[in-house]
Write a structure and sequence with these properties.
The chain is 5% helix and 47% strand. A hairpin with a 4-residue loop joins strand 12 and strand 13. The radius of gyration is 19 Å and the shape is elongated. The two termini are 38 Å apart.
């Protein structure tokens, strides 16, 4: 698969079948996971070409999301959709309040501690249940809680996050 257009954001993957009428299961990257259903339309890439994917119904089903895609009416048609990534236009995201950031905006930022030591770059974020954690990869991997007092400043313009974190921890 080619690199997605910078105007799009990966929000989920079709990962299974649900029932016999063409419904699919969706692994959602949104938080909460049912938020994927609030974005219309979805976009998929097949053979290097972007296509719009319209779902006509969707809901939470246990721990997963299920959706009925327009013109997909049976299991065999739905089976062909398994493994396809689902994207939205970044412009569909709600505007955040000052000081709030989407995780996607933090990936790749340089992380520096208060001694001006570069810990590395944000590779990912994780929700531990208690709080979010920055996974920072440098000479070694650091897991820095994304909360005060450890998080001092996020500066998107400088592409940098300042943290109160010891480089040996």
């Amino acid at each position: 698969m080619s690199n997605p257009n910078t105007k799009r954001l990966l929000v989920g993957t079709i990962n299974g079948l649900f029932g016999v009428q063409g419904w699919v299961k969706i692994f959602s990257h949104t938080e909460p996971r049912k938020n994927i259903l609030t974005y219309k339309p979805w976009h998929i890439e097949i053979g290097g070409q972007w296509q719009t994917l319209e779902f006509i119904n969707g809901r939470e089903q246990g721990k997963t999301i299920v959706a009925k895609i327009k013109d997909i009416d049976n299991r065999e048609q739905a089976r062909a959709m398994i493994g396809i990534d689902v994207y939205i236009e970044k412009s569909q995201l709600p505007k955040l309040k000052k000081g709030e950031h989407y995780w996607k905006d933090l990936i790749g930022l340089e992380v520096v501690n208060q001694s001006n030591f570069v810990l590395g770059k944000v590779q990912n974020l994780m929700d531990t249940g208690a709080n979010h954690v920055l996974i920072v990869q440098g000479e070694k991997e650091h897991w820095v809680p994304y909360i005060e007092p450890f998080l001092c400043e996020v500066n998107i313009e400088k592409q940098q996050i300042l943290v109160d974190w010891d480089e040996d921890f």
